[in-house]
Inverse folding.
């Protein structure tokens, strides 16, 4: 007589409803998040980049602001932070000149490939080589396990200046 009663049916119904509600909530969150990211990239234009190394302080900055941050970090002898700021300034200066299209999703390797793919003239090839040299030094300073030194940053800054960035 009691074998036909399913005592777990109400629990299964509740669990199913909770899972559907959770999945719907995650879906709505993803749509809102992706929409905001898409709108931000459309508003950003070529003159801005997003600081992604500090998500709590992430906001759009101009090349001038990045250069100022690079100088502040250099004064405080925070070489890795100065290098990051100078990198963003260089990318934005190159974007202002029409040589690169900035995106928070791009890596230094992406920018190296982008510069190399547009080097059809001797001037463009020279610029691509300068960009590659800057990015190589940048990657060494920022991603190497050793701590950067003042002379490392000075070399990076010397590579950045011909591209219009002054940190």
């Amino acid at each position: 007589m009691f074998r036909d009663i399913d005592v777990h049916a109400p629990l299964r119904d509740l669990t199913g409803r909770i899972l559907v509600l959770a999945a719907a909530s995650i879906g709505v969150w993803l749509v809102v998040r992706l929409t905001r990211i898409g709108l931000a990239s459309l508003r950003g234009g070529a003159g801005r980049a997003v600081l992604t190394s500090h998500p709590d302080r992430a906001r759009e900055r101009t090349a001038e602001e990045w250069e100022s941050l690079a100088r502040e970090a250099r004064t405080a002898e925070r070489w890795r932070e100065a290098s990051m700021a100078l990198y963003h300034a260089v990318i934005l200066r190159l974007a202002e000149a029409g040589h690169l299209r900035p995106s928070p999703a791009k890596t230094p390797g992406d920018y190296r490939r982008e510069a190399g793919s547009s080097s059809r003239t001797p001037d463009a090839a020279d610029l691509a080589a300068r960009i590659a040299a800057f990015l190589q030094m940048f990657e060494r300073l920022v991603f190497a396990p050793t701590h950067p030194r003042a002379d490392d940053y000075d070399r990076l800054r010397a590579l950045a200046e011909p591209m219009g960035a002054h940190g």
Q: What stands out?
A: The longest strand covers residues 49-50. Strands lie at 49-50, 60-61. The radius of gyration is 24 Å. The chain has six helices and two strands.
